[in-house]
Amino acid sequence: MDRTGYDMAAGAGSAVGILLVVIGGLIVVGLLLWAVRFGIKVKQREPRTPRGGEHPTLPDSGPVHETRQRREPDEVPRAEETGRRLSPHELGSPGTRRSEDQDRPRWDQGSGGSFGSGGSGGR
């Protein structure tokens, strides 16, 4: 039995396999380079964020200040007032309104202020 033909075919097959791996690697490297260039182009088209030392400017009306006010929830109309029960989609979002009493709530002088402990509050 002559194995020379088989050895030659096996040798040629391994060379083709190596060549296919090299070509595949080059394709992968080419795709990665294309993806990086594409990402750079997309990043350049996006709006730029301010860098260190760059700040947004004040509005023409001047600085905006915080306002403190007490709010209370809007009352839900009762079934007796409307004559029927309201569905959830008729209620809308839970709105609030400015409270009549704008004084800040304070702790009672004799209470401990600790979630209903009822203790003397360290006195």
TrEMBL record:
Entry keyword Lipid metabolism: no
Region described as Disordered: spans on this chain: 43-123
Coiled-coil parts of chain: none
Presence of keyword Transmembrane: yes
Basic and acidic residues composition bias: residue spans: 43-54, 63-88, 97-107
Record field: compositional bias (Gly residues): 110-123
Keywords assigned: Membrane, Transmembrane, Transmembrane helix
Superkingdom in the source lineage: Bacteria
Segments traversing the membrane: 12-36
Name the record gives this protein: DUF6479 family protein
Biological source species: Streptomyces similanensis
